[in-house]
Amino acid sequence: MASGSFRFGPFRLDPGDRRLERDGVPVELNARYLDALALLVREAGRLVSKDRFLEEVWRGVPVTDEALTQCIKTLRRQLGDDAARPRFIETVPKHGYRFVAPVEEVGDEPRPPALASAPQEASHSWRRFFLLGGAGTIGAGVAGLAGGLAYGFAGASQPVGSGMGAASVLLVLLWLTIAAALMGGAGVSFGIAAAGFARDRRWSILGGALGGLAVGGAVKLLGLDAFNLLLGRSPAGITGAGEGALLGGAVGLGAWLASRLSARRGVAVAAAIGGAAGILIPSLGGRLMGGSLDLLARTFPDSSLRLDAIGGLFGESGFGPVSQSVTGGLEGMLFGGCVAGAMIVARRSLSGKG
After folding, report:
1. Is the pLDDT score of 311 beyond 70?
2. Could you tell me which of 64, 91, 61, 66 has the C-alpha nearest to residue 76?
3. How far apart, in whole angstroms, are the C-alpha atoms of residue 278 and residue 243?
4. Position 118 pLDDT exceeds 60
5. Which residue segments constitute the domains of the chain, with CATH numbers given?
6. Which of 74, 188, 223, 228 has the fewest beta carbons closer than 10 A?
7. Could you give the CA distance from residue 309 to residue 253 in angstroms, rounded to a whole number?
8. What is the pTM of this model?
9. How far apart are the first and last CA of the chain?
10. Helices (H), the chain
11. How many Å is the Cα radius of gyration of the chain?
């Protein structure tokens, strides 16, 4: 069957325009899954083998059978199909899939519903932007909670001044880390979500980097000004724009790759890339949260903050380079995995409403 626009049931698929509609309303599908549906529809009534999906949809990118299974599962959900009683996509065990619904090639005739649905599409795009950005921010907050508890317990385990108890140290570090994670997560997540307005999701890398750059730079500038105003000096080397851009770009890359894999593998890949960036940042002379907290403690010797307990785990007398690399890797892994995981959940929620 030639390429063009196709009708089947209440749906219209236009592969050239990269668009699937149900009764004139756009249906959300990522680029890879749209390609898979177009292949099935063009070959309606004929078996499409797994090898052919890998060759024409994934174009030689190595993926597991689970990625194809997740693709078909998502297509069925969007089409309202049932694997046990298929109306659209039939499984041919151990061989591939077949599109079984009648398909009509409709060419390029005018589509009045498209004009009526344009405001709905724009509304959906903005809904998608805010939902994905908000979800990623919440995911970052979860990462901040985990990191804050780790740093809080480490700080509370050290001797503290008479004016502050261990519980106070724990709470202060907990809320400080959560606040930093939420601000950084908002910049990165909304940067990635903004990249969704472009057709190519690889813009997520640039979106995440720019979001991290903007928030990291702004927070550092305001933080240094606050320290100078209140205390007369500031820790100039705390985390900022450079670290935000590198980690944000890594999370954007992880989020892009995660959208092409199953949820579990996607989160694992995003966490791994974030962890790698977290290890790289200290080696380049930068600092993430742990390194910034240690710098604060050394800049203000009278403070009750100490992270020596973490350094002791790695045979260091203080919070040395090994401690910074390990904690940076863990911070990046938590941040990347939680942001990407939350955005995957939000994306699937949107797909279910498509």
Report:
1. yes
2. 91
3. 9
4. no
5. 6-109 (1.10.10.10), 120-349 (no CATH)
6. 228
7. 34
8. 0.67
9. 27
10. 31-42, 50-56, 65-79, 112-156, 166-195, 203-231, 241-258, 263-283, 289-299, 308-313, 321-353
11. 25
